[in-house]
Structure formats: C-alpha cells, structure tokens
Amino acid sequence: MKTETISRHDFFRLVGTSVGVILLSNSSMGCSNQSGGDPEPVDQNIDFTLRLSDQINENLRIKGGYIVANNIIIAQTKDGQFIAVSATCTCATQGTLLAYKPADNQFYCPQHLSRYDSAGKVIVGPATQPLVKYQTGTGKSADTLRIYL
C-alpha cells in the first residue's frame, strides 16, 4: 500500500482555505432571518420629547451628532436637520445597534456592515428590510425635539 504525501506548503494552503470557508460561512449566517416571518411590529404610540440642553442629549447639539433613545437613533445631519429611525439593524438577530455616519448621511451596522439612507432604506445588505422612520419636530420650546410616528 502506497501512502501519498503532500508538501508543507500545500498542507498549510489547504488548512488556510478550509478555515477561511468555515469563517465566511459563519459570518454570512449571522444576518439570515431565522424566523422567516415579518419584522417586529412597530409601536404605534411612539411620541416623546427630548430636551436638547440635557447633558445626556448633548451630542444632538452638534451637526453630525447622534444618540439612541427609546430604541430610536436620532441624529443631526450636517445640514442641521434632525432625523430618527429605529436603532437596530434589521438583519441582526441579536439586535445590533446602528451608528450614524454624518459624512455619508447614513446609518450603518458595525457588526454586519449593512447601510441605510437617512430615510431608513437599505443601501447595502445583507439587511433587506428598511428601518422604521420617525417624524421629528421642535417641541413647545426651541430647546426641545419631538420624535413621533
């Protein structure tokens, strides 16, 4: 019986390829929708006001700043407009919080790299469902910001 041998170089190339395939397949499964159903229902009673002078909301006082409140990401665009969308990536089963990138005026998932425009529409997947877009407006005083559906 003859035993075949492979070179060290070929062995490590084979091992590296195998590990790469395993890691790639695991990372692409993280965004698959396991339930196959509709996205989570939206709470139709969202209506709250933020006081911009409160220290917890200080990032909203600068253009490009953002905060997360009540599972909603609220950002001030570089043009000075306020925008608000649901704060979790629609492809993430773990509920990964999104971040806001003011230079591109986009929301992105740091874990899955999905990107959404300022209206919550998917620009780059793996996400396929849009974010919920909320209305914003000044509250009863200039120091307040109202977020509602």
In brief, what are we looking at here?
It comes from Spirosoma validum. The protein is built from 1 helix and 10 strands.
What is the overall number of helices?
1
Q: What is the percentage of strand-forming residues? A: 25-35%
Q: What CATH architecture of the domain at 47-148 would you give?
A: 3-layer Sandwich
CATH top-level class of the domain at 47-148? Mainly Beta
Percentage of residues in helical conformation: 10-25%
Which structural category fits the helices and strands? Answer: alpha+beta
* Secondary-structure element pattern, one letter each: HEEEEEEEEEE
Low-pLDDT stretches: 19-39
Main pleated sheet: 6 strands, antiparallel
Fourth-level CATH superfamily of the domain at 47-148 = Rieske [2Fe-2S] iron-sulphur domain
Number of strands: 10
